[in-house]
Specification:
Blueprint lengths: L2 H12 L9 H12 L3 H14 L5 H17 L6 H22 L3 H25 L2 H21 L7 H12 L3 H9 L7 H14 L4 H15 L4 H17 L4 H7 L8
Helix pairs in contact: 1-5, 2-3, 2-4, 3-4, 4-5, 4-6, 4-13, 5-6, 6-7, 7-8, 8-10, 10-11, 11-12, 12-13
Length: about 260
């Protein structure tokens, strides 16, 4: 754990625990703000929820997500990167505490592990953007372990499939040198078909990952379209539907207009 993560965990333990969990509907309402392009409003919304529920991981993860999407829409990879790192450190600390508190309750454990895994996945993304591949690999491996535990606790957790699918797909599509390094440092090898299938299933059955999974899946199909024009057409269709549903989110429109990012 980083110094910031350790500090956040200590601060969390000192806070009064709100026994009432955040209503999933409240989280989905906040996510609607993100995908609608109201990033600043979403950031404050989830910041308030995180303050009201100091033992809950999801609001802090989604506060960081709002900033990540904000930067994606603006085309700024390092948008508020330091702030995002602090939020994610706090989210990881909260997530680790929530996993411990869940005990033998499989449903609670799966949810706690999902949000912890999501925080770790975002951490891996941020580290990769900074060029810190060792940190990126460390967070990615931790994400995979955590999300696999979540699936073991609840095999129906479609949300858990997004991070695992991205892990598989990214490793499968890495260059030869990157794949060699991945095996050397213990990331293993990816499986392209399994990765795409997991992302698709998350898009179809996920609760909290529904829109982000479609975004990632559409981008992956665009990339695969370099070899198969029908996949590119399908990718543009998926992202076109997102752009039509959320017309004020520049992230969706930028891809259709020729951007080359592959999603948060």
């Amino acid at each position: 754990m980083s110094v910031l993560g350790a500090f956040a965990l200590g601060a969390l333990c000192a806070l009064p625990v709100n026994a009432q969990a955040v209503d999933p509907a409240a989280l989905l309402s906040g996510q609607e703000l993100i995908y609608s392009g109201r990033f600043e409003a979403a950031r404050h919304y989830f910041g308030d929820l995180a303050a009201q529920h100091p033992s809950e991981t999801a609001p802090r993860v989604l506060e960081a997500s709002a900033l990540i999407w904000w930067g994606e829409a603006a085309g700024e990879e390092m948008f508020r990167a330091d702030t995002i790192d602090v939020l994610l450190d706090d989210a990881v600390a909260r997530g680790e505490a929530a996993v411990q508190a869940a005990g033998a309750d499989s449903a609670a454990l799966a949810q706690a592990l999902f949000w912890l895994g999501t925080a770790l996945g975002y951490h891996a993304r941020q580290a990769e953007l900074r060029g810190d591949m060792l940190a990126a690999s460390r967070h990615a491996k931790a994400m995979r372990r955590v999300l696999e535990r979540a699936l073991a606790a609840d095999a129906s957790c479609a949300d858990c499939l997004l991070g695992l699918g991205v892990y598989d797909y990214a490793l499968a599509r890495a260059g030869a040198v990157s794949r060699l390094m991945a095996r050397i440092i213990g990331l293993g090898g990816g499986q392209l078909a399994r990765g795409l299938d997991r992302i698709r299933r998350s898009a179809e059955g996920g609760v909290f990952t529904r829109w982000e999974s479609r975004w990632v899946y559409g981008n992956a199909l665009l990339r695969e379209g370099e070899r198969d024009a029908s996949l590119r057409e399908e990718g543009r269709r998926i992202i076109g539907e997102l752009a039509a549903r959320f017309p004020d989110n520049q992230a969706f429109r930028r891809i259709l207009e020729g951007g080359d990012r592959t999603g948060p």
